[in-house]
Specification:
Keywords: Membrane, Transmembrane, Transmembrane helix
Number of helices: 2
Radius of gyration: 23 Å
Distance between the termini: 32 Å
Structural class: mainly alpha
Number of strands: 0
Shape: elongated
Helix content: 55-70%
Largest sheet: none
């Protein structure tokens, strides 16, 4: 049986796909990803204040900033998605 496409008639509803709600785990991981940017900046600032003498050079080396960003960017979305409520199907 071939697939038939019927043209939309005036006054009929559009044949758009049904929108499903976004799952809580996806929402939580998205918020965790955004929070990772804020946490990364804060951790780098704290590291600079504690171990790299504050506002004077030397500043925090770029590899350390990269590792902090990688760790926060991976850990926070994962943890937020892991601990979010699961939808039973």
């Amino acid at each position: 049986m071939p697939y038939e496409v019927t043209p939309q008639q005036p006054g009929e509803a559009d044949h758009a796909p049904v929108r499903h709600p976004i799952e809580p785990k996806v929402k939580a991981a998205t918020v965790g990803g955004g929070a990772a940017g804020v946490v990364t900046a804060f951790v780098v600032w704290i590291t600079d204040q504690l171990w790299f003498n504050g506002d004077v050079p030397p500043e925090v080396p770029f590899p350390i900033v990269s590792m902090v960003g990688l760790a926060a960017g991976a850990a926070l979305p994962f943890a937020a998605g892991y601990y979010a409520r699961h939808v039973n199907r």
